[in-house]
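Follow-up to my earlier ticket, as requested here are the two runs.
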Amino acid sequence: MSESVAVLLHHRVTVESVPELEARPIRYDRAVFEAFRALEIDVRKKAGLADGVYGINVFNLAFGANNNGRRGVLTPEPLDAGEAKGYRDLFAGAYSLYRNRRGHRDIEHDPAQAIRLLLLASALFDELDQLDVDDSTLDQ
């Protein structure tokens, strides 16, 4: 991977995905899978969710979907209801499409598409890093 691309990746994406890009043969599908798997893990931890919560439920609970209209612990302020839903949809949609497909079937990537998806995962990690969480609201 070129250094110019590597500096754009969030450190979690670098840790989880770059080894797959350095493998021979290069495993683009695994690199994308690992980036979005790490996103699920970090959202679960930041939201204070139990280890038994996984998949799309992590994002629904963390960002408030299917929560009787209540905001999730990670829903940023000051978003109105539509923006909050869009924020949840951004995380949940990216995870559902790009991680889940790779968990259930082989996906062939061209290198450019894989790098774009790693940059998307990096952008979501950057969003997650910017969220302030009131620890008193977390389920420990």
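Run two:
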Amino acid sequence: MDSVRARPARQQRDITLQSVARTPSRNKREDADRSSQRSSAVSSRKTRGLSRNSTPSRISSHQGRKRADHAHCASDALGRQNDRARPDRNINAPPSNTVPQISRRFETLSTVSGTRALSRFSSPGKTLSVGLETNGLGFLGFMIELPGAFVRGETERNALSKVHAEASAYSRWARNPSEPPSEVMVVQRHNCKLHVEDADGEILLDADRGVMGKAEFKTLADLAIYSGETFDRIYAASELKDWVDTARIRLTFNGQAPKTIREIFEHVNRTQKYYLSRAGLGLPEETRDNFLGIRRNCLARLEELFNQTGNSAVFNVRDEEWTLKKILRRFIWHDRIHGKSIYRILRKQENSGLTGRIEDPFRFDP
């Protein structure tokens, strides 16, 4: 802060007491009055200090702040809808390799980050941690131990009620079936000004800032490749790629929602370069690779940067913070959320008798 610092309270008190000591008293009664006042002031300060440090007071303060932030986000939910382009949400955005202006800073990160490197396709422990963001109109939660796993809901309770089902589906997809966690813990909350109700989020998880070694980078990159392969598979197995799901015809904050399987696939394909650009990187203009070719090229560029900076760089792009770890997590999440949309369309086609048996490579259903 650039403001003038106030003198410490203890120093002010000492100066005041010294001034009183230097001023001659008119009589002993005045001295007694001053002594009584000082004792009362000290007693009052001790009482206030105990109140501040007591648990009920701290909870009450947190709840009040939470209500104020919640109300602010609810009223400002539309405030930033035109602040910045969101190619990951706008299906009509043309492909572009333009790298936006990025503010980069480096952080010295403690090795005691609480973030552990995951072995390939490992399952969560007994406790599953969730980071939540909301704009007051919807909730989006990300599971810390399962990169890319997510839940959504109109309320926090509704979103968290889906954690066990999502964790189970993710574990099936990751080829390591396991029992759902016995406890779900919300470890981070973020008040978001974007359209969370349309799955538009910005949260930088505390785990996204954590120290990331080579083994963890490889784990996340492997998951991002595997996720891309799964998404490509569900698209390739779809027969009616241009069948319009009329229930999906609606306007979002950033244009028409994708309403066919092909539109969803093209949207996810374009977004790969968008995620790469969050780290100030791009692919050559002449790149004409297929979906998986672009994914591998993006991850190769991210690995080059990781070998130089690790996960210590925080990129600020149009008021949203990114790290390499967040970018990898978002690759997986984006495949998953739109893979789920494709699977819902396929189920509708199957139930209408338009197609035969459908594939579920993400293992959304048990």
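The only thing I checked on run two: The first strand starts at residue 103 and ends at 106. Let me know what else you need.
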